[in-house]
Amino acid sequence: MLLAPFIDPNLGELKSRIAMAAMTRAFCGPNHTATRKMAEYYAARACNGVGLILTEGTIIHHTADGYNNVPYIETSEQCDSWRQVTNAVHAEGGKIFCQLWHCGRISHSDYTGGVPPLSSTNVAASGVNRQNNKPFGQPKAMTQRDIEEVIAQFVAAARNAMAAGFDGVELHCGHGYLIDQFFDSRINDRTDAYGGSVPNRCRFGLEVIGSVVESIGSSAVMARLSPSRDMGGLYDWPDLHDMLDYVIPAAHASGLRMLDISCANADYYATSGRIIRSVRKAWPGFLVGGASLSQEQAEAELKDGWLDMVTWGRALIANRDMPLRFQAGCSLMDFSRDMLATLD
Q: Which domains can be identified in the chain, with CATH numbers?
């Protein structure tokens, strides 16, 4: 199943069930534009059999940034720059989604034009921001007006992505960034309609999803969730099962039809694989996950119906021809951190 072409009701015809996970690479051009090198990087994966590419996190608005040298999709210049990427991937028969990203409090005013980062809370994230070696910035708890403006920014970014030729967008709702800062009761200390109860903490994320679906259509929207991940130990959402029981059917009711359960660099079976086994019972739509599976493990997840596509991240940095290696029965090159120094 993994290497065979297939047709999905939302995505259409794909070359394989291999998906490239969204990974921050930090090689943008001037004014946070996409570059020719980025186009070559993604096209090389599509050329070698990757069915779906999820781009690196792409900032929806200049006040949403929190990283060095990451691309945006806010201005006409930035939007136009992405066309070389989508054209290159499509020329190789691949599909590509733009991951839309708002960092929230995982940021600093150095990256937001001098204004405080926005969040569900006014409590700063603990630790030091490795992007500028400073403590994370003091965030501003979002007002109702802020919430409406950020939802509008997600919608505008989604429209820009479609205008740039993307097949769709992935809303980054995980990994401790803005939308996840509302989901997570360890962070969300609000007492208004966006905090406290499970439905309230899910409200902002569902409003983003619903608004983007309404704007560009359900067949072009995926959401990434990370209810369980490794953060120096297992880290689950508080009220995990109550959250899943509410947000999964509510997301489907909002028009979402594609879901990415992500765990980043963690043991799949202890984190996202465990969540997928719970989610699948309530999720009739397209479901993708993985990140660290062997070929044999990926085949088993597909055949048992847990997943529709399988993501890989670091393995696809190390092996741009990974699908061909699988097909030929060749071993994969090991990932090493020095591979992050170039975009190959």
A: 6-341 (3.20.20.70)
